[in-house]
Amino acid sequence: MRISEYNVRPDLPQELKALEEIAYNLWWCWNDDALELFRSINPASWEKSRHNPIAVIGSLTREGYEKLMKDPVFMSRLEAVHKQFTEYMTLPRWFELEHAKKVEEKMHVAYFSAEYGIHESVKLYSGGLGVLSGDHCKSASDVGIPFSAIGLLYRNGYFHQYLNSDGWQQEYYPYNEFYNMPMRRALNPEGQEVCVEVMVENRTVKVNVWRMAVGKIELILLDTDVEGNSKEDRQITGQLYGGDSNMRLKQEIILGIAGYRAIRAMGRKATVYHINEGHPSFVNLERIRNYVSEGMEFRTAVEVVRKSTIFTTHTPVPAGFDIFGTDQVKKYLGPLFENCVLNINQLMGFGRVNPFDESEGFAMAVCGIKLSTYRNGVSRLHGEVSRKMFKNIWPNALENSIPVGHVTNGVHLPTFISEEFKTIYNRYIGENWYYKPYDFTIWSKAENIPDAALFKAKQRQREKLIAFARKHLKSQILQRGGTSGELVKADEVLNPDHLTIGFARRFATYKRGYLLFMDEQRLHQILNNADRPVQIIIAGKAHPKDNGGKEIIKKIFHICRKPMFRDKVVFIEDYDIEVAKYLAQGVDIWLNTPKRPMEASGTSGMKIAANGGLNLSILDGWWDEGYNGENGWAIGAGEEYEKETYQDHVESMELYDKLENEIIPLFYTRDRAGVPREWTRMMKQAIKTCAAFFNTSRMVMNYTDQYYVPVHELNSAFRANKHEEAKEYVLWKDSIIQSWDNVQFVDTKVEADDLKMESGVIFSAAVRTDAIQPENLSVCAIVEFDGASGEFKDPEFVELEFKNVENGVYSYSTKTTLKKAGKMKVAFAVLPRHKFIKERFELNQIKWA
Ligand SMILES: *Cc1c(COP(=O)(O)O)cnc(C)c1O
Questions:
Q1: Residue 714 falls within a domain, yes or no?
Q2: The DUF3417 domain covers which part of the protein (predicted)?
Q3: Which residues have a Cβ under 8 Å from the Cβ of 483 and sit 6 or more positions away?
Q4: Ligand 1: which residue has its CA nearest to atom 7?
Q5: From 324, 543, 748, 821, which residue has the greatest number of CB atoms within 10 Å?
Q6: Mean pLDDT across the chain
Q7: CA-to-CA distance for 840 and 833, rounded, in angstroms?
């Protein structure tokens, strides 16, 4: 029997077209009125579909439409939401106002990521990277950046989790019904559906292209589950991070190469390429291949690609990067590059630290780094860690000048702040927290929120979280085939008035989910103190192949079942964006215990702070930067340990101490009105200091000013006059590198009347070269005051001015004032200088005096 399937699309009457328009733009997922509008249509199908407006609309019959149209309350709500939506889509935003010229010049950012976490109903994410990419998109829309995001349309997304009766994680995969997702086929400028092709191994794979609207920006999704592709190829976009290394390689070919072809076919002309993590790095190779096939000289093409790309690493460990073997790359990518000037060895070089070392595989992150102008980590500490991690790519650079910066992550506040808190903020801070979340002066008004109102709002959120947890628990019990007695008990777990600690994250070993449970007896005393009871809610998945992570979950599961912890410690299965929101909004304390410096940034703690929760965390990732002594608690002081068991012991002890001696007493010390004044003071500190900075509006604006705009400008300069300047730059670079050996210092001097703070000092140097013009050299005095003798840690570069030339010797000097007292270390160095060199050590050339 052959069964054919057809999708019958709903055909809404004219009066309800606005509903469809809103449903097909994910803007609804951060607008509470829109969410309520869809829920009100049919609460049961809303729940059943995991809050999917398209499914809710699709479940309506003609009578259903009639009923809505006859409901004046519904219709006026629809009108109001549609008005908000139209305003959102048309009002000019920060970028359009501040960078009007860039809008005119048609700056356009193409953002590549392997996953996007936008809403629980759109299952194209696994965890932190996905949620961050989703938030990046939402904020790019909020601040008005011309922006397209590119990703894969996974048929099965990432796994759902449940635990068997022994607490062992079980996995099953969702099936994404594309017609129930808020997207449509992408169209080319002629209005035809876009389908691109790409060679994988020796086959041509067809890739359908879809478009999802996220406010003002678009998310472009690639799908190989296309008729005509082999069964195997149809599964390339099956599972997120599923399959073996060959599968990963194929997925990355689709993401980078088909992704680039898709945006071109759609008529998008990106001027800035933002690559997130190594996964999309093949886009660089495809762009080079494309330029070369259009007749551009190879090295010019490389430079053009480099000068339009930024690369962001989200991992602190090299083990997190994909590395493919030479044979593997040859097999899968070889045919694609067959008829191209680019040979496979040149290709391999981009993915190796040492291009000529045949034993090195192709590292996607190295390819991202080598073919970009700017690179960054995702918190201040991660910037440092990344400079260490990648220092062998620039063996001549000082460690702190390794050209990898940082932009600290954030969260999309309208997505993660509860309705209750939004109302409070609107009332006491003003609606500008929403429109200008990056403005510190607005957030400082958090002081005006009355303590009682703030605590009451939190109380309400905690109640909601507990109700949610109980409901969740009941469905978990049902799924496991539990008894009716268990079901009744589930309604009695947790207490809405008790201090609630949340802990939810991927159960990777370095996150140390077990730390809180190191001393069960002591934990028992803490939780079951009759006057000051405490409870814990836990959630998180382990990677399907990570048995260590699964063991931790199992251990916690069994602890939850012990009589002394029952009702007090609850594990919520299947951590996703919805669970994350309830936790972020409802818990009082958010616990995070990574092994420093393994947490690149982490963002869940930011969601907590924006909802008035307090962080209790190791000083790692964002908290190393966010903690100020008054807005939460630190475990440790940023130490790193050699011995793991010792570290676990010390840090778990401190964790218990902080809870017993500081946190719990503070929460339960109430005034006569029942308000914990000192606690609410800290809540306000957290709101004021964290929400104002750790949000994605600020983050996206940082990316724009630090990287997107400068890269757009570089790219414009390069593209003008048929890439004339790019060609010149390549020649210039060659000549500099060729004559660099002959650059040498003849003399250097530090002259001062007296070496006192505030007094003047003259740095001068004489340099000899055979062929380089003086303006092409950057001669610097490198000055540092603090730190150990004999090395530079984070020195200042004082640029000397060119004065004159005599007998082929260039003189440079400059006068500055000494800003500090103490031991001053000075060295002189010369580096290449060019208007297109944006980072001092970009060319990895330096000569020391
Ligand atoms: C915010 C969020 C994360 C990020 O969590 P961290 O532990 O801070 O990295 C992961 N998963 C989901 C579902 C989230 O909402």
A1: no
A2: 12-121
A3: none
A4: 505
A5: 324
A6: 94
A7: 8
CB count in 10 Å sphere of residue 707: 25
Contact of 326 with 395, CB cutoff 8 Å: no
Q: Whose CA is nearest to atom 1 of ligand 1?
A: 604
Global model pTM greater than 0.70: yes
3-state secondary structure of 355: coil
Convert the pLDDT of each residue in 780-835 to its tens digit.
999 988 777 778 888 899 999 999 999 989 999 999 988 888 888 899 999 999 99
Specify whether 250 is located in the same domain as 282. yes
- DSSP strand pairing (272-276 vs 109-112): parallel
The β-bridge partners of 169 are: 163
Q: Are residues 251 and 144 in the same domain?
A: yes
Question: Which is the closest atom of ligand 1 to the Cα of 506?
Answer: 7
Residue burial 659-682, b: 16+ Cβ < 10 Å; e: rest: bbeebbebbbeeeeeebbeebbeb
Domain co-membership, 555 together with 450: yes
Asked if the peptide bond before residue 10 counts as cis, ω within 30 degrees of 0, the response is: no
Residues 303 and 432 in one domain: no
Ligand 1, residues 161, 505, 507, 576: which to mutate, most atoms within 8 A of Cβ? 505
Domain count, the chain: 4
Q: Report pLDDT digits (tens) over 687-729.
A: 999 999 999 999 999 999 999 999 999 999 999 999 999 999 9
Structural domain includes residue 698: no
Which structural domain, as residue segments, surrounds residue 430?
Answer: 413-693
Residue 616's nearest CA partner among 525, 517, 520, 502 is 502
In a domain, 584, yes or no: yes
- Protein residues whose CB sits closer than 6 Å to any atom of ligand 1: 127-128, 131, 505, 575-577, 580, 602-604, 607
Q: Kindly indicate the confidence band of residue 428, based on its pLDDT and cuts at 50, 70 and 90.
A: very high
